[in-house]
TrEMBL record:
HAMAP family listed in its UniProt record: Sulf_adenylyltr_sub1
Quaternary state and interactors: Heterodimer composed of CysD, the smaller subunit, and CysN.
Name this protein carries in UniProt: Sulfate adenylyltransferase subunit 1
Annotated binding of GTP, by residue: 41-48, 120-124, 175-178
Keywords per UniProt: ATP-binding, GTP-binding, Nucleotide-binding, Nucleotidyltransferase, Transferase
Entry keyword GTP-binding: yes
Function statement: With CysD forms the ATP sulfurylase (ATPS) that catalyzes the adenylation of sulfate producing adenosine 5'-phosphosulfate (APS) and diphosphate, the first enzymatic step in sulfur assimilation pathway. APS synthesis involves the formation of a high-energy phosphoric-sulfuric acid anhydride bond driven by GTP hydrolysis by CysN coupled to ATP hydrolysis by CysD.
Organism from which the protein derives: Sulfurovum indicum
Pathways per UniProt: Sulfur metabolism; hydrogen sulfide biosynthesis; sulfite from sulfate: step 1/3
Length: 489
């Protein structure tokens, strides 16, 4: 049973539009742009408190959640009489008992202008893989620093991962300013040391903020306690920062997800445009085969039925989901990449990659794995570990195998060539996951840095001669198991 006092508080936090007009509420949010951010910091820097504060102040807390947290603040909370904002965020029971964050918790909130998805990632070194997971889709990272402690080893580690994962905007949130009397001097010292770190790593844009997540200083409103701070409060900064990345329309990338063949007259290639744009009539090349044709039709997303197969568009761009038909009958299968003929990516089976190992069983060079990149799955192995990076000191080490949470530069060799965009050019087509072929678990994640072998070697690989027995087997599979989409050899 809730007390009257609790009900009064919670009613303030009801989203009145959700109650009265759910369709209106959804419409209102539909057209807002989306910003994904990640919070990282060392143990107890205040990540969960900060996120809880943002959710609370943007009224994204439902009344039952708030009532529960109010009760639990007394039981588990660390904030005395105040509501423990961290309990709004730390959803897992075991986490409450241990008092640490053990998984990536995704949260949603919105302002008038934007929708936000927050990835709350754990700070400990043994959870590097969780942080990598949270960072892989984020546009912005908030790195929390406890004002009393300054930059720690963990700050260096988090900054390295954030930068490795291609996050260009880093907000350095110097938290617990209330515990250092909102000292401008301390703020400036931390800012100066972080600037050196940012320069060392090559982080593109940094923003510095003095905060008290617990009391809400500079979270939503500018704090009177930091008159020397000239920047925006956190929420306003997130609301207004420009995260758009210039996309070159000619870098069209269309990983084919599904071949739609409802009858003999129709053959469409479905997928989500990963980058750039495409027009009807454009000359396209299918990779890795290198076959060329032209775009005949672009059909809008949705189920392709007899009735809507005519709903065509002249041009489509990332991240639209479309079906493309071609002028000629070329062999295109799931996992292929359609690109503009005038702007081809490198195609290779031998790639230089950065690999994050996520499994208890170490990665030993030469072991065969399934490599899933966009819509394609190709077998391959890591032939050689070039070096492991110590994420705390940024030093390089020579090692024979990769353990859990290790990050290393490796040479990856695949059994088939793929169109290889560098991760820094395209996060979607430049990244991959590594799957154990027996357990089917995701055991690693990686980023393509570049092609490590010359193109001639690739041609040799694709022009491999097959024996009669191999050809017969290939034909048998194509005739009897069409659902396997086996290619003709
Ligand atoms: N004085 C003060 N205390 C704070 C502030 N922010 C957080 N705290 C307190 O610091 C402690 C840790 O906060 P959390 O939000 O749980 O920290 P976290 O970074 O999520 O920690 P983990 O979940 O262990 O990774 C709690 O007792 C908070 O109440 C702040 O701005 N000022």
């Amino acid at each position: 049973m809730r007390t009257e006092e609790e009900t009064n508080i919670t009613n303030d936090h009801r989203l009145s539009t959700i109650d009265s007009d759910i369709i209106g509420y959804l419409k209102e949010h539909e057209n807002k742009d989306m910003l994904r951010f990640l919070t990282c910091g060392s143990v107890d820097d205040g990540k969960s408190t900060l996120i809880g504060r943002m959710l609370y102040d943007s009224k994204m807390i439902f009344d039952d959640q708030l009532a529960a947290v109010k009760g639990e603040s007394k039981k588990y909370g660390t904030t005395g009489e105040k509501i423990d904002m961290a309990l709004l965020v730390d959803g897992l029971q075991s986490e409450r008992e241990q008092g640490i964050t053990i998984d990536v918790a995704y949260r949603f909130f919105a302002t008038e202008r934007r929708k936000f998805i927050i990835a709350d990632t754990p700070g400990h070194e043994q959870y590097t893989r969780n942080m990598v997971t949270g960072a892989s889709t984020a546009d912005v990272a908030i790195i929390l620093i406890d004002a009393r402690k300054g930059i720690l080893t963990q700050t260096r580690r988090h900054s390295y991962i954030v930068n490795l994962l291609g996050i260009e905007h880093v907000i350095v949130a110097i938290n617990k300013m209330d515990l250092v009397d909102f000292s401008q001097e301390i703020f400036n010292e931390i800012k100066a040391s972080y600037s050196e770190l940012a320069e060392e790593l090559g982080i593109k844009y940094t923003y510095y903020l003095p905060l008290s997540a617990l009391d809400g200083d500079n979270v939503v409103d500018k704090s009177e306690k930091t008159p020397w701070y000239e920047g925006k409060p956190l929420l306003e900064l997130l609301d207004t920062m420009d995260i758009s990345q210039k996309q070159r329309t000619e870098d069209f990338r269309f990983p084919v997800q599904y071949i739609n063949r409802p009858n003999l007259d129709f053959r469409g290639f479905c997928g989500t445009i990963a980058a750039g744009s495409v027009k009807v009539g454009d000359e396209i090349t299918v990779l890795p085969s290198g076959k060329t044709t032209k775009v005949k039709n672009i059909i809008n997303a949705g189920d392709i039925t007899e009735a809507n197969r005519e709903v065509v568009t002249e041009e489509a761009y990332a991240p639209m989901a479309v079906t493309i038909t071609t002028e000629d009958e070329v062999d295109i299968s799931r996992g292929n990449m359609i690109v503009h003929t005038k702007n081809l990516p490198r195609v290779s089976n031998s790639l230089k990659v950065m690999l994050v190992w996520m499994d208890e069983t170490p990665m030993e060079p030469g072991t065969t794995y399934d490599i899933k990149r966009a819509t394609s799955v190709v077998t391959g192995n890591f032939e050689h570990i070039n070096y492991k990076v110590d994420v705390n000191t940024y030093e390089r080490e020579q090692i024979g195998k990769l353990g859990l949470n290790d990050i290393a530069s490796c040479k990856m060799v695949l059994t088939q060539p793929i169109a290889a965009d560098a991760y820094k050019e395209n996060r979607l087509t430049g990244s991959f996951i590594v799957i154990d072929r027996i357990t089917n678990n995701t055991v690693g994640a990686g980023m393509i840095i570049g092609v490590s072998r010359r193109e001639e070697d690739v041609k040799k690989l694709s022009a491999r001669e097959y024996t009669d027995a191999e050809r017969a087997l290939n034909q048998y599979i194509r005739e009897n198991f069409p659902e396997w989409e086996c290619k003709k050899c």
